Amino acid sequence: MSIDLTQFHDAFFDESFEAVDSMEAALLKLDTGSPDPEAINTIFRVAHSIKGGSATFGFGEIASFTHSLETLLDELRSRRMTVTQRICDLLLRSVDILRAMLRAAKAKQPIEMQSVADLQLDIEVVIVQRDAGVAASPALMLSSGESLAATDAQRRASAAARTVEWLIQLRPGPLFFERGTDPLRIFRELSVLGALTVTADLDALPACQELDPRRCYLSWSLVLVSDAPEAAIREIFEWMNADCELVVTCRAGAPAPASPTEEARGSDAAAEDILTTAAPAAAAPPVAAVAAPVIELVQPAQMPQAGHAAESGSIRVGVEKLDELINTVGELVITHAMLSQICHSISGPAAEVLRSGMQQLERNMRQLQEGVMRVRMLPISVVFSRFPRMVRDLAQRLDKQVELKIVGETTELDKTVLEKIGDPLVHLVRNCIDHGIENAKARMAAGKNPFGTLQLNASHRGGNIAIEVADDGGGLDCERIVAKARAAGLVGANDKLSEAEIQQLIFLPGFSTAEVTTDVSGRGVGMDVVRRNVTDLGGKIEVRSERGKGSQFLITLPLTLAIVDGLSVGVGDQTYILPMMSTIESLRLAPSQVTTIADGREVFAFRDEYLPIIRLYQIFGLNPRARALHDGLVVVVEGAGRRVGLFVDDLLGQQQVVIKSLETHYGRVSGISAATILGDGSVALILDVADLIRSASHREAA
Amino acid sequence: MKPARKTVRRTRKTPEPQPRSEVIALPADCTLRKIDALRDQLCGVHADVRNITLDLRQLERFDTATLQLVAAFARDRVAHGANLLVCGNRPVWDEAAELLGLTATLGARA
Amino acid sequence: MPSQSAHTTAPAVINQVLTFAIGDATYGIDIPCVQEIRGWSPVTRLPQAPADVLGVLNLRGSIVPVLDLRLKFGSTNVQYTPITVIIVVSVTSAKGPREFGMVVDGVSDVIDITPEDVKPAPDLGATSSGAYIRGLVPVTGRMVVLLDVALLIGKEFSAAAAEDATQAA
């Protein structure tokens, strides 16, 4: 009976990508002057576990590359080599290569091996060169895959020439082959280290007609005469799967190496034969790292959804399951609304009891809703984590000095929002570094710290998520912006704009003030796409800037995409929902407050500006109850960087509504973002405030 | 009373003479993934075959599982009195057999 | 009942068609695309929609557009009475299955037809229904006009919908 390993691939890839991320994070924090040994250990352990997993699952190229990487890391953590900038760069390149390899493997596509081979060569060269006086030519490296171990042995020849006889006894469990290890490979590696004599034990091998060709019935006893250090020998067995008994004894008087053995829970091999020594602490973590993927295999019932149950008390859940849950909760909200309505229209003694029951139900439901929403929430660190590396590379490329500060990375938001906010944030960060922060010389000339600061803040604010991208660079140059806008015909030559309005210009399509468009940003498609992405998520983006001091971009997002806080308004016989996030205030205007300007447009004073009025019934072709402005209500809303007053008949109430797509069966409608189902089962349309405002201004321009 | 005995005559095919020699050509891929096919191939060799030749010329990929299976086959047949030859000169096969300590079992070279 | 072709030895392919009335005419659509038949209920209006797209309806939790086929085919005086019916159909588009409702004057019966029974439609000139006709089926006492449902959704709904339908076709 064979085990199909592919069912575990997903978990392997998920974990490996995470591992690579944590490796990168640790690398970026590494101070080459005084590297934190714990960080190096972490990086080593990560590489090691990826090696083990990829070997187990048959991803040979990944295992082999990680093996080389691990050799270098071992040198670093045992202080035989020091962490230099060059090594740091090599390690970061390794991170990139590993990611690429994992991606290719996951997509079942061939791995591009040239860059892997090049990097592997660089790593090997660095290791060899660190030993003063030993100049091994690169040509030697390329001759065989085991060259590293061989050169290792060669290098140490001068250091501690000591021939030792090792007795190695290997008794694999029946599933040894299927777990992905081929004894042939291991023995071949051993044979490179010295003279190897192998004796096989066929006693357990049944007749050909009766044996299961997938099971391992052989065991071996090997004698290796070698002057290789115990580390070299130990390491060969470290990436072997643990479904076996392994005993390694040293016959030449030196302490035996730590045997990285573990019993697979499924095998009934006795524990007494296993030899462990007082191994240095460093040996222990690698054992655990190797054992982890294998132990999960032993009990497939728990794997992979049970994931790292022991470590973090978390489980992996498929996204479809969560989406289903959210849908069901949404239906619950609608059903509750419906029952609520019925409840209000009945009377009598039973009605009272029913009403209090409904209130209880509503409380329970809110809790369930919040709980389910929280299940889909992930910390924003998932997105923020790519920035240290990006900022470092970008700053280097643009020859700027940038310090990145991240605050609030534990702030949680809905998974779908998280997935879509990454690109806009990347663009904002690029912009800040490219256009915002000046180079060191300019900064010092301006009396600033040559290191510019880029701040990423995330927090919960009033039921929404607030993400801020701020820099202490030169700020928005309003004169240049206006000049550019005038040149592009976006603004009339004589238009007078407030500073706020000028700042909003950067969100217009086709706008860019970069004199030289770098390949990083500045092609002019950036900020309007950023705003579009943010508003598509139901959020908004604001900018604040002070010339010479810096800029802040503030993005506000709803906590979830599925449910929105809405204000229901009535226009004629129709009910529309206004997202609360877009509403500022509602008021009833007296006739004296409204001014009609030249082309028939109506404006009114609100705080310190004049806002235009949009009569919704005109936009939607409805027959309203109120035509005179003082007979209805004006709701001040905000979108597309502007504010307007929407004229409606009535405010009907405030409620949470479940967002239902209009596009599944119909398509896009101008001014409408989606639909919802009200308590009485009827459909209400949800207004797209930004779209309404944009269309209105197009009409004005026409 | 003895029951009448019915004899039923069936037409019998003339039995073919069992082959005394057989050449088993190992396919290109004999690794763990394809090991079942190899086992069927080996087990299909009739018990009475006296001279068994393993032809390795098409063999491209093999692993420990392959050698274990062939070792079991070789051991059984030799114990049964057959001669086992390996032909198709493949040094990599010899090296592998040596590394796994199976040279003695896996037969003489042709 | 249309006769079956006598000269084929293999069993004839039988399509089931739902017939319904619009004014005095009888139309038919393939049964497999019919999801359900509902009585008329008020719909939520869609802004900027063509005149025959009445609005959207809540269909088991999905927002489904409703098209008044009578208006589409040129009737001017349409009533919404207790026997007015909405036929909910589903078509496959590039985006996946899409549903919409068609308002008609009442459903008739389900008939069995074979491909041989379908006669090509004569060029009906500029009639509004002409674009959607797949063919004509003579049935005792009347002529059933077979409609291509996928084309109905293609032409009239928003531009995006039209793109999807032509991509799927």
List keywords for this structure.
heterotrimer, A: alpha+beta, Four Helix Bundle (Hemerythrin (Met), subunit A), Alpha-Beta Plaits, 5 domains, five-stranded mixed beta sheet, 22 helices, 42% helix, flat, C: 169 residues, mainly beta, OB fold (Dihydrolipoamide Acetyltransferase, E2P), 13% helix, 43% strand, globular, disordered C terminus
List the helices and strands and how they pair.
The complex is a heterotrimer of chains A (702), B (110) and C (169).
Chain A: H1 9-28, H2 37-56, H3 60-77, H4 85-106, H5 113-129, H6 138-142, H7 147-159, E1 164-172, H8 183-193, E2 194-201, E3 219-226, H9 230-238, E4 244-250, H10 284-298, H11 309-312, H12 319-345, H13 349-375, E5 377-379, H14 381-384, H15 387-398, E6 402-407, E7 412-414, H16 415-436, H17 440-445, E8 452-461, E9 464-471, H18 478-487, H19 499-504, H20 526-536, E10 540-546, E11 550-558, E12 563-571, E13 574-579, E14 583-587, E15 594-596, E16 602-606, E17 609-615, H21 616-620, E18 633-639, E19 642-648, E20 650-658, E21 672-677, E22 683-687, H22 689-701
Parallel strand pairs in A: 6-8, 13-22, 17-19
Antiparallel strand pairs in A: 1-3, 1-4, 2-3, 5-7, 8-9, 9-11, 10-11, 12-13, 12-20, 14-18, 15-16, 16-17, 18-19, 21-22
Helix pairs in contact in A: 1-2, 1-4, 2-3, 2-10, 3-4, 3-5, 4-5, 8-9, 12-13, 15-16, 16-20
Chain B: E1 21-25, H1 35-43, E2 51-55, H2 64-79, E3 83-87, H3 91-99, E4 108-109
Parallel strand pairs in B: 1-2, 2-3, 3-4
Helix pairs in contact in B: 1-2
Chain C: E1 15-22, E2 25-30, E3 34-39, E4 53-59, E5 62-68, H1 69-72, E6 85-93, E7 96-104, E8 106-113, E9 133-139, E10 142-147, H2 149-156, H3 159-168
Parallel strand pairs in C: 2-10, 5-7
Antiparallel strand pairs in C: 1-2, 1-8, 3-6, 4-5, 6-7, 9-10
Radius of gyration of chain A, CA atoms, in whole angstroms: 33 Å
Q: Domain count of chain C, please report it.
A: 1
Second CATH tier, the architecture of chain C:
Beta Barrel
The strand order across the widest sheet of chain C is: 8-1-2-10-9
| Highest CATH level, the class of chain C | Mainly Beta
Quaternary arrangement of the chains shown?
heterotrimer
- Kindly report how far apart the N and C termini of chain A lie: 75 Å
Helix run count of chain C: 3
The largest sheet of chain C, given as strand count, sense and whether it forms a barrel, is: 5 strands, mixed
Kindly report the name of the CATH homologous superfamily of the largest domain in chain A. Answer: Histidine kinase-like ATPase, C-terminal domain
Count up the helices of chain A. 22
Query: What's the rounded overall pLDDT mean of chain A?
Result: 77
Helix content of chain C: 10-25%
Radius of gyration based on Cα positions of chain C: 16 Å
Helical/strand content category of chain A = alpha+beta
| Count of extended strands of chain C | 10
Q: How many domains comprise the coordinates of chain A? A: 5
CATH secondary-structure class of the largest domain in chain A: Alpha Beta
